[in-house]
Amino acid sequence: MSASSTPSRPSSPSPLTPSAVVTRLRAAGCVFAEDEAELLITTARTPAELAAMVDRRAGGLPLEHVLGWAEFCELRIAVDPGVFVPRRRTEFLVRRAAALARPGAVVVDLCCGSGAVGAALAAALDGIELYAADIDPAAVRCARRNIAAVGGRAYAGDLFEPLPATLRGRVGVLAANVPYVPTGAVGLLPPEARDHEPLVALDGGADGLAVMRRVAAEAPHWLAPGGHLLVETSERQAPPAADAFARNGLVPRIAHSEDHDATVVIGTAPGGVRTAPGGGMGSEGDGHGVERPIRR
């Protein structure tokens, strides 16, 4: 066979240009296509990997699952496929918890998902003793990766059930990012959430507060005197959540951040030195949040 008749090899597909990535993402409905394209391009190690990542993102997979990580409190948190993606608004819960924690406190990240809240608190505070728990085994495996470097321990099980009994009465900060979407509203969530995140991390029961009520009922047995329970809710759900805290012996107050569009209900166990509402990080007038006590 002459050289002129030698079959040519199929050419490799051309690498995706940045503009081609943006165009593909925009066509798929990604609102922040330029920002996402930059993240995908800088994360991909090869042109083939970039093409596969763009395909997955254009197919509706959450960006964080495509990247394998989420940015949270200036940290890169590993997020495996199928694991709840930490929301930026939850950074407000971290700020409130960090303002209340004392050096060396026992901190529990309940309903931990990827362990983002616990990892962020460990980065913000010195010498805390960190524990995390979630009912989803995939989330716990992910959380272990995210908190291992700070000596944190993660357990699989329903709420408090898997935690070491030795923590009872010792917890200084209990951050519980419970599911709070009402069952009837789960179907209204963006497809990225309802199709790719576990239902157990989203569905909070008929009014969205079923899991929160269980946490509020059990938390006083685990909190140290003066310890704090913090949960994220919607602004509308905050008053009934605060009532549930009060019924279980906790002193409630509500913190809201316009910047984060986030609401956190804080319950303090009796017996310790109470932090004045608005004290510490995120106090009224600093642009990060306003706290108000519940008056009866």
Automatic annotation (TrEMBL):
Extent of Basic and acidic residues compositional bias: 285-296
Annotated region described as Disordered, given as residue ranges: 273-296
Organism: Streptomyces celluloflavus
Pfam families cross-referenced by the UniProt entry: MTS
Record's keyword annotation contains Heme: no
Catalysed conversion reaction: L-glutaminyl-[peptide chain release factor] + S-adenosyl-L-methionine = N(5)-methyl-L-glutaminyl-[peptide chain release factor] + S-adenosyl-L-homocysteine + H(+)
UniProt entry keywords in alphabetical sequence: Methyltransferase, S-adenosyl-L-methionine, Transferase
Protein name: peptide chain release factor N(5)-glutamine methyltransferase
EC number: 2.1.1.297
Limits of the Methyltransferase small domain: 76-162
Entry annotated with the keyword Aminoacyl-tRNA synthetase: no
Matching InterPro entries: HemK-like (IPR004556), MeTrfrase_put (IPR022446), N5-glutamine_MTase (IPR050320), SAM-dependent_MTases_sf (IPR029063), Small_mtfrase_dom (IPR007848)
